[in-house]
Automatic annotation (TrEMBL):
<dbReference type="Pfam" id="PF08510">
    <property type="entry name" value="PIG-P"/>
</dbReference>
<feature type="domain" description="PIG-P">
    <location>
        <begin position="19"/>
        <end position="138"/>
    </location>
</feature>
<keyword id="KW-1133">Transmembrane helix</keyword>
<dbReference type="InterPro" id="IPR052263">
    <property type="entry name" value="GPI_Anchor_Biosynth"/>
</dbReference>
<keyword id="KW-0328">Glycosyltransferase</keyword>
<feature type="transmembrane region" description="Helical">
    <location>
        <begin position="60"/>
        <end position="86"/>
    </location>
</feature>
<dbReference type="GO" id="GO:0016020">
    <property type="term" value="C:membrane"/>
</dbReference>
<feature type="transmembrane region" description="Helical">
    <location>
        <begin position="21"/>
        <end position="40"/>
    </location>
</feature>
<protein>
    <submittedName>
        <fullName>Phosphatidylinositol N-acetylglucosaminyltransferase subunit P</fullName>
    </submittedName>
</protein>
<dbReference type="GO" id="GO:0005783">
    <property type="term" value="C:endoplasmic reticulum"/>
</dbReference>
<keyword id="KW-0808">Transferase</keyword>
<dbReference type="GO" id="GO:0016757">
    <property type="term" value="F:glycosyltransferase activity"/>
</dbReference>
<keyword id="KW-0812">Transmembrane</keyword>
<dbReference type="GO" id="GO:0006506">
    <property type="term" value="P:GPI anchor biosynthetic process"/>
</dbReference>
<keyword id="KW-0472">Membrane</keyword>
<dbReference type="InterPro" id="IPR013717">
    <property type="entry name" value="PIG-P"/>
</dbReference>
Amino acid sequence: MNSALFSPLPPVENKRPQAEVYGFVLWIATFFILSGYLLFSWLPPESLYSYGITYHPDRYWALSIPAYIPFSYGLIGITMNFLWIYHRAQPLDDFGILEDEYTNYAVRRYGVEVEHVTKPVIPPVKDIPITKINQVLYHKH
């Protein structure tokens, strides 16, 4: 075999900072933000005043923001689920709602379903034709 075909590629020079540096900086920033949040939520206001921090939000936000975040994720998930179902549903005037390729009508002979006679199990779900429904509902005696 020709060794020139399988020679290693030359190293690529990367002129921008590496992803590891960004990850480390974000990790440190997350640590400081979490530490500041915990100090703000647990220390009494007199301690914050002694450190020179005189302007800070109400303590209500220390509990409400962490509680609102999971609630908003759940609300967004439920909303997106309803929108997806609405997007995928067929219109109400479409005849595909009444009968499609998955329709499974019960086979009846002499007024008895054939499958129930041969198999003594729980009967499978069957569809009723719309003509039979209209006959039963709107038949005049």
